[in-house]
Design goal:
The chain is of the alpha/beta class. The chain is built from nine helices and 15 strands.
Length: about 350
């Protein structure tokens, strides 16, 4: 068999031609260059002069450019219920995400002038009354012992005096708050959304009323420290102060519209940088709904965490990078913000 021919030593390969394109429609489009990657700055039209206020981000697949004024850092569900040791939550990925946000993500957003949105569970009584069974089950629910004479009637959907908490599979076996959201410390199994969490002991030794599960303004739905202090500081900013937006499903962008979507559209925000917990649940659900609604979606992987097995994160990260948008890190955002500030100083000097 004849051996494959080798290229001659002096033979050169012609460089690929530079390619440009416009992707999308007249009201929502990206620009792409084979040299510089994707431009997500949303100029008035494809031939507009590039904005000088642009932040360059390296992602796992391609460089992207974003406009800080049209971008939001979305921090999902970094709340006591999901992270606090008072609920038996073990230190893990969510706490590492907290560190990444405090060290890189939030300071970078502040430096670049990016809006910070705290998108959290915050239910009211009407939400609880109308909550579908599939969503309720995800947080455990209440059961009654059959021989207590429970009968069907108008009280079927209210909390029972002698009811007991069971996990999402209907089991009353306590597995620990480090393994199941439905479980807390000291053998507690919660009765689901809107049910009392009872008295809790904080890591500092303080006894607090945990409030009703994921209800707005309850202790369990408050931000996990030190993120609570970061929000308080950001809420006082003169320009683009932080906002807290309640959601009543795992996704904060579900349905025809939502409070989060209404805020984004009012402010002209098109690019969303996603962080929070849990990566494969509330973060992923909000991410995919935002993608379907036409927003630019970027996952800051080190700013996300979950208690699920690693393959759950791998699935979200793979699809976020290859189908739904892009994947990068809080640290990369900080680098982009720093370089944007440096370039801005150079332009003023010239």
């Amino acid at each position: 068999m004849q051996a494959p021919s080798r290229k001659l030593a002096d033979e050169t390969v012609a460089p690929a031609p530079h390619r440009r394109t416009v992707i999308g429609n007249a009201s929502n489009f990206w620009l792409h260059s084979s040299k510089t990657g994707f431009d997500l700055t949303h100029p008035p039209n494809p031939s507009s002069k590039p904005s000088s206020a642009r932040l360059q981000l390296e992602t796992t697949t391609t460089p992207i450019a974003i406009d800080p004024a049209k971008t939001a850092l979305v921090i999902v569900d970094m709340q006591n219920f999901f992270l606090s040791e008072a609920f038996g939550r073990a230190k893990g990925a969510g706490h590492r995400a907290t560190d990444a946000l405090m060290d890189y993500g939030i300071p970078a957003a502040r430096k670049a002038g990016i809006q910070v949105i705290w998108l959290n569970w915050g239910l009211n009584d009407a939400d609880i009354k109308n909550m579908p069974p599939a969503v309720k089950r995800a947080f455990g629910f209440e059961a009654v012992v059959d021989d207590e004479g429970h009968t069907t009637g108008v009280d079927d959907f209210s909390e029972k005096e002698h009811g007991m908490g069971v996990d999402m599979d209907g089991s009353s076996e306590h597995q620990g708050g480090d393994k199941m959201l439905e479980n807390g410390k000291d053998g507690r199994i919660y009765k689901g959304l809107g049910a009392s969490c009872g008295r809790l002991t904080t890591p500092e030794g303080e006894t607090v009323d945990g409030g009703r599960l994921l209800m707005a303004d309850s202790w369990n739905a408050a931000l996990y420290p030190p993120l609570d202090a970061a929000y308080e500081e950001g809420a006082k900013l003169d320009s683009r102060p932080d906002v807290w937006i309640h959601k009543n499903r795992m996704s904060g962008m579900w349905g025809a519209t939502s409070p989060c979507q209404e805020f984004l559209d009012e402010k002209g925000i098109r690019t969303l940088l996603f962080t929070g917990v849990n990566t494969d649940q509330c973060v992923g659900g909000t991410f995919t709904d935002a993608f379907s609604k036409g927003y630019d979606c970027v996952l800051l992987q080190d700013g996300c965490g979950t208690t699920s097995p690693q393959f759950a994160t791998d699935c979200i990260v793979f699809n976020a990078a290859r189908t739904w948008g892009f994947v990068t890190t809080c640290e990369a955002l900080a680098k982009g913000a720093e370089e944007m500030g440096w370039h801005g100083k150079m332009e003023k000097a010239s």
